[in-house]
Amino acid sequence: MESSKLLLSFLLLSTFKFFFVTCTKFEVGGTNGWEVPKNKNQQFYNQWASQNRFNVNDTVYFKYKKDSVMEVTEEEYGKCHSTHPLFFSNNGETVFKLDRPGFFFFISGVAGHCQRGQKMIIKVLEPEIANPPQAQNQKHNSSALGIMPTYSPTILLLMILSVFGAFSFQFSLII
Ligand SMILES: *[C@@H]1O[C@H](CO)[C@@H](O)[C@H](O)[C@H]1NC(C)=O
Ligand SMILES: *[C@@H]1O[C@H](CO)[C@@H](O)[C@H](O)[C@H]1NC(C)=O
């Protein structure tokens, strides 16, 4: 009895913690991975990116064979060429952390691949506009409001459950 309650509280508290540190890992290009788009679609990766919402600290995962990933400046993205990329990886499985809001520019480092559409712009949302339902109906003035985290109803419910679970556990220890 005691131990099952302990387990329950532990599970609830770990759920609680999980939702606080959670970040999304996006698999670039879905099942295609990171490669020269097959259908000569220059915008293949930008279309993929526009279907997702990226928040600060989310990660993008590039899976590829005999290729590479470079994070470059906007200018280098336009030229499809960089001699000193901001980031470079060619190990076949690259996890890149989107550690700030704003734009990230990615191109393949293999000659000719970027020109054939293996390039992508990712826009990471500002933290305060990451949850549009709340942001929309409120005046954008209070800076305190912008910093305050906002949670979806599901997460709120889990938070309440976690607190409740911890409480009932302590209560049962008292009686
Ligand atoms: C992103 O992660 C860093 C380091 O882990 C942390 O300091 C920062 O507060 C996080 N930012 C957001 C918006 O979650
Ligand atoms: C909004 O903020 C600006 C400056 O940040 C201030 O001048 C203005 O009075 C504020 N408006 C309201 C409605 O609080």
From TrEMBL:
CDD domains in alphabetical order: OsENODL1_like (cd11019)
Similarity section: Belongs to the early nodulin-like (ENODL) family.
Keyword Transmembrane helix: yes
Keyword vocabulary terms for this entry: Cell membrane, Disulfide bond, Glycoprotein, GPI-anchor, Lipoprotein, Membrane, Signal, Transmembrane, Transmembrane helix
Positions of the Phytocyanin domain: 24-126
Entries under InterPro entries matching the protein: Cupredoxin, ENL_dom, Phytocyanin-like, Phytocyanin_dom
Record's protein name: Early nodulin-like protein 5
Main location: membrane
